[in-house]
């Protein structure tokens, strides 16, 4: 399937090159395509009206399982710049993005972060956890990397990008401090976040909360009866009040954990729906990175307090 997509990709590139029209004197805005909504939001805050920014993966989409469509390939080939997360988050698109980088600017946001601040995926030696956006301070580093790349790629608008990044970084810094303060309102013994897959490790490290996931860092990994049993026993032992489903993953796995607890005479609530690998709908608070984080933290604190 990957090979077919790559062949289609280069077919679109060739066709575009053959049918391109002469450039007009009026310079058009850059076309930027991102894989995830989180990256789109970061880029949009930096470039403003100097570029159009579109994400391939919308609300509720799982990037671990996402397969590029022919429409996506057309968008990628027509883009001036492509941003993606990297660290194998976009597992099924990896080869397509690698091939595309030979013909245009393609930037893996996480590649700019030093290995020393990245986490190894629990249970997967040598594999780095790609979910960097859950630590707001780490995401600020990613934003700075995007800013640097835009200045390099489009130096004409450097002064605007500098100013916009400074404003957005200040907002992210306030968000980071707010998350810390809100989570401290949860009793220490209840600061345990249990979700469908292990996406929140950076969140746990940054904000001093114990994090457990039924699946590994990728939703490709399957869970078994033993995984459910071990998590059920942990919940009962710690007297956990609530566990959480995720917007981009079926709730069935967490519901199985809830049922397992019930069979052992412990009632654990579904504390709410967390935005993990995708943001909310455009036009809602959760449709922005800052709004998504605020909503997640509110959901967590209200369920665990």
Features:
single chain, 305 residues, alpha/beta, Rossmann fold, 2 domains, 4-stranded parallel beta sheet, two-stranded parallel sheet, 8 strands, 45% helix, 13% strand, globular
Layout: helices, strands, pairs:
Elements (H helix, E strand, L loop, with lengths): L1 H18 L10 E5 L2 H11 L3 E5 L14 H9 L2 E4 L9 H7 L5 E3 L27 H18 L4 H26 L8 E6 L3 H7 L2 E6 L9 H14 L3 E5 L5 H12 L5 E6 L14 H16 L1
Parallel strand pairs: 1-2, 1-3, 3-4, 5-6, 7-8
Summary of the model, kept short:
The protein is of the alpha/beta class. It is built from ten helices and eight strands. The longest helix is centred in the middle third of the chain and has 26 residues, at 158-183.
Descriptive report:
With 305 residues, this protein is of the alpha/beta class. The protein folds into 2 domains: 167 residues, Rossmann fold (3-Layer(aba) Sandwich), CATH 3.40.50; 124 residues, Rossmann fold, CATH 3.40.50.1980. About 5% of the residues have low confidence.
Tally of discrete structural domains: 2
The CATH homologous superfamily of the largest domain is termed Nitrogenase molybdenum iron protein domain
How many strands in all?
8
CA gyration radius, whole angstroms? 21 Å
Supply the CATH architecture of the largest domain.
3-Layer(aba) Sandwich
Instruction: Give the distance, in angstroms, between the N- and C-terminal Cα atoms.
Output: 47 Å
Poorly predicted regions are: 12-25
Number of helices: 10
* CATH overall fold name of the largest domain: Rossmann fold
Q: Write down the overall mean pLDDT.
A: 90
Q: What is the helical fraction, as a range of percent?
A: 40-55%
Class of the largest domain, according to the CATH hierarchy? Alpha Beta
Give the strand order of the largest sheet, numbering strands 1, 2, ... along the chain.
Answer: 2-1-3-4
Order of helices and strands: HEHEHEHEHHEHEHEHEH
Strand share of the residues? 5-15%
Cα shape: globular
Q: Report the sheet with the most strands, covering strand number, pairing sense and barrel closure.
A: 4 strands, parallel
Structural class: alpha/beta
């Amino acid at each position: 399937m990957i090979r077919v997509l790559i062949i289609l990709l280069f077919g679109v590139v060739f066709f575009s090159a053959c049918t391109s029209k002469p450039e007009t004197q009026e310079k058009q805005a850059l076309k930027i395509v991102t894989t995830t909504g989180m990256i789109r939001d970061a880029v949009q805050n930096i470039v403003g009206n100097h570029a159009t920014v579109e994400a391939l993966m919308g609300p509720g989409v799982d990037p671990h399982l996402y397969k590029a469509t022919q429409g996506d390939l057309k968008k990628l080939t027509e883009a001036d710049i492509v941003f993606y997360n990297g660290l194998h988050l976009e597992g099924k698109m990896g080869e397509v993005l690698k091939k595309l980088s030979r013909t245009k600017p393609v930037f893996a946001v996480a590649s700019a972060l030093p290995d020393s601040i990245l986490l190894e995926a629990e249970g997967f030696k040598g594999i780095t956890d790609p979910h960097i956006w859950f630590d707001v301070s780490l995401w600020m580093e990613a934003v700075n990397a995007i800013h640097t790349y835009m200045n390099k790629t489009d130096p004409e608008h450097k002064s605007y990008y500098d100013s916009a990044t400074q404003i957005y970084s200040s907002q992210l810094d306030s968000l980071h401090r707010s998350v810390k303060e809100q989570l401290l309102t949860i009793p220490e013994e209840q600061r345990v976040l249990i979700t469908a897959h292990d996406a929140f490790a950076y969140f746990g490290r940054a904000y001093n909360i114990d994090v457990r996931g039924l699946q590994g860092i990728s939703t490709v990994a399957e869970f078994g009866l033993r995984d459910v049993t071990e998590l059920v026993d942990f919940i009962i032992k710690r007297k956990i009040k609530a566990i959480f489903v995720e917007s981009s993953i079926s709730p069935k796995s967490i519901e199985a954990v809830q049922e397992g607890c019930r069979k052992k005479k412990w009632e654990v609530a579904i504390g709410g729906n967390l935005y993990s690998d995708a943001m909310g709908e455009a036009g809602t608070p959760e449709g922005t990175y800052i709004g998504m984080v605020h909503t997640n933290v509110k959901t967590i604190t209200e369920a665990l307090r």
